[in-house]
Amino acid sequence: MTALENKFRKLATDNAPGQEVRQNDSSLASLTLGEALPGIQVDFSHGDVDAFEPTPGSLERFVEGVHIGGKRAYTEYRGDSQIREKLAVRLGDFTGASIASHQQLILTPGSQGALFLAIATTTSAGDKVAIVQPDYFANRKLVEFFDGEIVPVSMDYLANDKSAGLDLSQLEDAFKAGAKVFVFSNPNNPAGVVYSAEEIAIIAQLAERYGVTVIVDQLYSRLLYSNESYTHLCAQPVIPENLITIMGPSKTESLSGYRLGVAFGSAHIINRMEKLQAIVSLRAGGYSQSVLQGWFSEPAGWMEERIRLHQAIRDDLINAFSAIDGVAIRCPQAGSYLFPRLPELRLRSEDFVRVLRHQANVIVTPGTEFSPHATQSVRLNFSQDHQAAIKAVERMATLIGRYRK
Amino acid sequence: MTALENKFRKLATDNAPGQEVRQNDSSLASLTLGEALPGIQVDFSHGDVDAFEPTPGSLERFVEGVHIGGKRAYTEYRGDSQIREKLAVRLGDFTGASIASHQQLILTPGSQGALFLAIATTTSAGDKVAIVQPDYFANRKLVEFFDGEIVPVSMDYLANDKSAGLDLSQLEDAFKAGAKVFVFSNPNNPAGVVYSAEEIAIIAQLAERYGVTVIVDQLYSRLLYSNESYTHLCAQPVIPENLITIMGPSKTESLSGYRLGVAFGSAHIINRMEKLQAIVSLRAGGYSQSVLQGWFSEPAGWMEERIRLHQAIRDDLINAFSAIDGVAIRCPQAGSYLFPRLPELRLRSEDFVRVLRHQANVIVTPGTEFSPHATQSVRLNFSQDHQAAIKAVERMATLIGRYRK
């Protein structure tokens, strides 16, 4: 097998959210027990933008962009300067950081685009990169693609409730061992937990002390539930010299179809990211960039209502999972992910996920996408129709009962 | 300097089309002679989508995509299957190749996205890659980014008129020397010349014989002028085992603001490209994908009229350049680029380009972006307002006279 073949074999996407349609399910019959459970399909692999629609006015802003014409179709690679100026102020207000729009901010095709550019511009072959387990699967895949070496840092989110549960001594060990980059999501994807103020302060101090580049993916930081608090690393009194913060309106604001994200932070990394974006995709879609004019400027009360509705679903699903014998789950503090650990089953986790889709019309993402150790966990994005989600978790409960050891 | 610093230093974008706004022009005063020439700005660095508007119905198709909602926002990473089915038939009709929509076609964010994925999935560190001089600047930059080794193959477009002028013995030498990949644009960007049927047949045969992967960027192949013929490599009787063809509606169809491209060809490379797209940008913008439903299905006569209007501009500008003492130029057979070689000037080519912008309000791209040997050439995209383009070339002629040796 050539190096390239091996690299792309590891970059498997068969179990990635949304790719289930490409699986060959011919071998499934030998695994299933009992009858199928009827019910409306719920695809927990991503949020349902029909249940939670895009921010009001988004399409109108896109159409405005089309009418602006060439100036909006062909922006600087890092994005339209007027839009960056507006966003720099709003993101500064939200995070508490100071952001120079001309030097420290880039618009990207989705926050995935930002994450790709951030890792590509900071990681060389052989570089050690600290990765949380569990965390967003693309972090690991991107480091592997650029031939970096992953140094795992564990997060025991189930054993903690006042912090995310990151093992900070493991993190320092990784830095001592020469990790050049630390990439993590906050709130954590898949567990939905938020790093405490103390954890963020220590991460910032350690990274500064050891000269580690930090990439923090804050994609879900706006969807923060009542009585929770959030600490922005970029606004800490001590921050690492190389720090990139990633956000985007694809999730809470349901704007994924427009492919928009942003990264802000250290100017020389943003510069590199722009140079790379020039040969990867040129720029975030020009007309789509116009949609960002409405970001952090939603109608009064809109975001509060969106959070309230998600919190109600969260609470019902947490109750439902907690009632299933043998399930361990922590209530998410932000975002729309649940990451229950299931009891031991007679099937491998990946096979249970396939059975669940075929017998219960319920799509979830296997935990092993997020950590090699999360063999009993599955991820659900609960940004769904409320009643359909409850029914779907009832069907899950039935199948967990049917397949447990 | 670290390896990463060096890599991104080489990935310079300061002279790239559209990035002029980021240049520091403080040193310009010492270079300029005489007075500025008044006139409407013409930005020849890219096509003017206000002068040549997007295909009729494009925005309406986008809006339809938004109304389809979640199903269109979250397609497979390689793009919506129904849209791929339609396009596979149309691209097959256009090129003469047989394209399996499920296995051999991927939708990407712009044709730039397709080019990035194609090179990233076929080029490893140390691999030799044959690159035409001159050719699209991203070809070279992408190979450098993936630490490939460039093997230049020269194309003497000025000395030929029945063929593009590729040095086929140099190409075979490159293949003999172990080149793994050959990437080229047809029609050539920047020179606008089309490879002859014989050139394409020989390229296909040589690549097949030496086991070389071929990536052919056919972005401008629809904008073919009267009495010209075009040969699709993918429809040759003998083709290399690994072949990717890239197209997109960003240029002729003026849809750049929607960021759409396609790649089709060898299924295992398309598979890799999808896996990589999953961590680079997830997918071409979901709603934008809907716009592709109108591609190769434009209103009757629309494409013919677009070609006729471009041909009229081409002919006027060719006449204008041919009248300038010391300019060498070849009439483009397809696309909307001119690549005149200017007489020797008292300024470096990059400085003349800056002076031209400041004194004449005319933006062109320096030839050295396309070949290290094209120090006297500049590229113009003449998809512009016809009269404004003529006036701009008159101002260029005045400044060429003013600055020539």
TrEMBL record, chains A, B:
It is an enzyme of class 2 (transferase). One of its GO terms (molecular function) is pyridoxal phosphate binding. Keywords: Aminotransferase, Pyridoxal phosphate, Transferase. Transmembrane segments: none annotated. GO terms for biological process: amino acid metabolic process. CDD domains: AAT_like. Residues 69-392 form the Aminotransferase class I/classII large domain. Its cofactor is pyridoxal 5'-phosphate. Its EC number is 2.6.1.1. InterPro entries: Aminotransferase_I/II_large (IPR004839), AspAT/PAT-like (IPR050596), PyrdxlP-dep_Trfase (IPR015424), PyrdxlP-dep_Trfase_major (IPR015421), PyrdxlP-dep_Trfase_small (IPR015422). The keyword Ribosomal protein does not apply. It holds the Pfam family Aminotran_1_2. PANTHER family: ASPARTATE AMINOTRANSFERASE. Belongs to the class-I pyridoxal-phosphate-dependent aminotransferase family. This is Aspartate aminotransferase.
